[in-house]
Amino acid sequence: MKKFLYILLFFVAGTASAAEIPECNAKTVGMVQCISLKECSCKLFRTSLINNDAGGYRWDCGITRPQCIDQNKISDREDARPYSGPDSVFIQQK
What we know:
Blueprint lengths: L1 H19 L11 E4 L2 E8 L10 E5 L10 H6 L18
């Protein structure tokens, strides 16, 4: 009985998270979506025989993609504000 519940929970959790991310297909090419704090772009990838990679439409969330950060949340924090000290400091030698 426990195995059945774990399997059911696994499938329910998997379908709930997949419902949030739109499908990447020919109609959504160029669309940008925030997935796992990355700004992912829907692209058409070509088939690569060298890498054994099938072609098709996929989300590009690679290392070169920028992070998607809510700028409003950052600017509200005190420690994220720009430096408000003097432009330069003069040290006098004795």
